[in-house]
């Protein structure tokens, strides 16, 4: 069973950048489709970006042009580079995986493995 562990969250001022990392505890990382989600207390979890086995990517409209998802299958890591951060980007960010390596909607119901999350706080 794959396990995921996020890191890289923190506090930053608006306009700043952060890079989130997700360590994947299996050598078969390359077989998983991966995604980043985020959640604010009291709100539903929302998809941020996903990447499939062939490194095809998909982004939520609210992060297009600012965030970039990438994966390093050799090192078993997933990344989310976040630039031009806004206060509304503040949330707990989660890494997720699905065993099907193909493309999937950016919807939490398609992902079966989750990390514990890393918190991002953006101040104005």
How many β-strands, per DSSP? Answer: 11
Helix and strand string, N-terminal first? Answer: EEEEEEEEEEE
Shape call: globular
Percent in helix: under 10%
Low-pLDDT ranges: none
Number of helices: 0
Main β sheet profile: 7 strands, mixed
- The mean pLDDT is 93
As a percent range, the share of strand residues is over 45%
Radius of gyration from CA coordinates: 13 Å
Structural category is mainly beta
Distance between the terminal alpha carbons, to the nearest Å?
40 Å
Notable features of this structure?
48% strand, mainly beta, 7-stranded mixed sheet
What would you say this structure looks like, in words?
The chain is an all-beta fold and 124 residues long. 0% of the residues lie in helices and 48% in strands. It contains no helices and eleven strands. The chain has strands at 4-7, 10-13, 18-24, 33-39, 46-51, 57-59, 67-72, 77-82, 91-98, 113-114, 118-123. Strands 2, 4, 5, 6, 9, 10 and 11 form a seven-stranded mixed beta sheet that branches. A four-stranded antiparallel beta sheet has the order 1-3-8-7, with no helix packed on it. Strand 5 (46-51) and strand 6 (57-59) form a beta hairpin. The radius of gyration is 13 Å and the shape is globular. The termini are far apart.
